[in-house]
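Entry 14. Structure prediction run on the chain below.
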Amino acid sequence: MTRRIALSVLALITAVLVLAVVPLGLIMTQREQTSFRDDSAARARSIASAAEEYLSDRKRDAAARHLVQEAHGRGDCAAVYDRAGHVVLSTACSDVAGDDSARLVASVLADPGTRVRQDDQWLTTSVPIGDASDAVGVAVLSRSVDPLQDRILAMWGWLALIGVGGLGAAVLVAVLLARWVGRPLRVLDEAAQQLGEGALDVRAPAGAGPQEVRRLAATFNTMAARTEALVHGHRAVVADVSHQLRTPLAALRLRLDLLAADAEGDTAAELADAQGEIARLSRLVDGLLAVARAEHAVPRPGPVRVDRLVAERVAAWEPVAHTGRVRLTAECRPGLTAFLGEGDLEQVLDNLIANSLDAVQQGGRVLITGRRQGGTVRLRVVDNGPGMSRAARETSFRRFGNPEASGAGLGLAIVHRLVTANGGTADLLDSPGGGLTVALSLPASRRGRDRDGKPGSGDTRASDP
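Output returned:
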């Protein structure tokens, strides 16, 4: 954004400078040329006026000769021709017109009037001497255009210097303006990214940048403070509820165990049923608390070696699978890395493996696969159990949404909350040949960019070999 603002302001000021300097230079160039022509014509008329006294009134040629000598001193070429076209007075370089001098003089005598001719080196002005109807001669003044070109070049040089100076000032202003606007926005973006990654105490400075950016930073800080208060408050409620529910349940279970130790017959059976209900209630409370924690968790993603973690969880659940005569295996690409909150993937895998082992019958199989696809880690837990109906799959990620669940129906809800909180997705699919496949898409790189603009440190290969 800083670069775009700077380039936009610079382009605008450059356009203004070009539109202002170029027309001004053209106008001043035309004015210089016109002034040079008018001055040449005025000097030629002065020589013609002085020569008229000599040619018409037969006075001395001192005045005309003096003006011709002055022209010679300035580096100009001057000549005075009589009615017959003969040179009366001239400087050493009078023959500037060359072979065209005779035709030029003849044309002025035939049709009295000022003639101006310019080439690359000289500006020649021819003025008739005497009355317009009866010219007695011609005064010709040739001036070098080099001084004119030098003045025009100097003028354009100054204009270019002014333009470059203005452009330099524009660059400075554009950079300062871009930093003034862009820097607080960049800081605010970094603060928002940190808040999204779980740093609830982060705040953005609200005293820099334009007024709109300051108000945005203040609004962000208010939102962050309220989010922090809500999350901390919910965590406190979950902790209190956990303590307040588990303590009486544990006490009640202990009393039932004591009563069941001395009970017989129908009383023992009733107490056993009550103990089962207490155990079910305890599992339900634990599941609800786990869902609540997952729903309000704000993960701080970090690199997680998915292949190693899958291998660890498979090893941990292998005794349970062996007891149920279920084959539990994993096929993950080496070095597979995802960015997740600490402990989230362990909890997700434990819930999925537990659900699969409960659903698969003896001789069944549970397979966990993992691979990299673009910026996503594709993790699948595939079993060949009875599977789920389409209606059950559509509601299984809700709390108590699966009517076919054998337990509390909270495992998949916990999985869905943890995966989506980390920026991933979870889907339920039919396994080829029957069964259920849980397909997880996990972020394989950091969301956003580091301060230096480089991508996150995760693996950024397009796909696994």
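The chain has three domains: 2-150, 204-298, 302-443.
Filed with the rest of this week's runs.
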